[in-house]
Write a structure and sequence with these properties.
The chain is an alpha+beta fold and 144 residues long. It contains 5 helices and 2 strands; from the N terminus they run H-H-E-E-H-H-H. Among the domains are: 35 residues; 57 residues, no CATH class. 36% of the residues lie in helices and 10% in strands. It has a two-stranded antiparallel sheet. The protein is flat, with a radius of gyration of 25 Å. The chain starts with 5 loop residues before the first helix and ends with a helix.
Length: 144
């Protein structure tokens, strides 16, 4: 079963499994254990969706995390331009679905909780020699 916040609730107990930690069952561990028992036996309980519609997974990733949402929706009709593309691509064994960032807001929001400042990237052309690690370090230092 799914228990929201399981890792935080179970933390006092999971700490006991770490190396160099003496196993002492105390009040915090007992409280966590009782709360987990209560949550295992009560609602909400996740269940499989009903119906035969296809599932759609929206996902996005960034340096800070990964976000994914599983959804179902009705299929919509393709316009003429999309039908022509579909006909052109029908010779290939592939499935291509493009979701621009504006349309992928659910997963995009999950993966970008904290935004990182963008890094400036520059091209570097050099001859590889024995001092390559030093040259890489110098180039990285100069780029900042």
């Amino acid at each position: 079963r799914f228990i929201e916040g399981f890792s935080k609730i179970a933390k006092p107990m999971t700490k006991l499994t770490q190396k160099k930690v003496k196993f002492e069952w105390g009040g915090k561990q007992e409280a966590a254990f009782q709360l987990l028992k209560q949550k295992l036996c009560s609602a909400p309980i996740l269940a499989l969706p009903k119906g035969s519609e296809d599932f759609i997974e929206y996902c996005d990733a960034s340096n800070k995390g990964l976000g994914a949402v599983l959804m179902q929706r009705e299929k919509k009709e393709l316009n003429m331009r999309q039908r022509r593309w579909l006909e052109l691509l029908s010779d290939y064994d592939c499935e291509i679905r493009y979701n621009p960032g504006k349309a992928n807001v659910v997963a995009d929001a999950l993966s970008r909780k904290e935004r990182e400042p963008t890094l400036r990237v520059r091209a570097l052309v050099m001859t590889i020699g024995l001092d390559l690690p030093r040259q890489i370090l110098n180039a990285q230092t100069e780029a900042r």
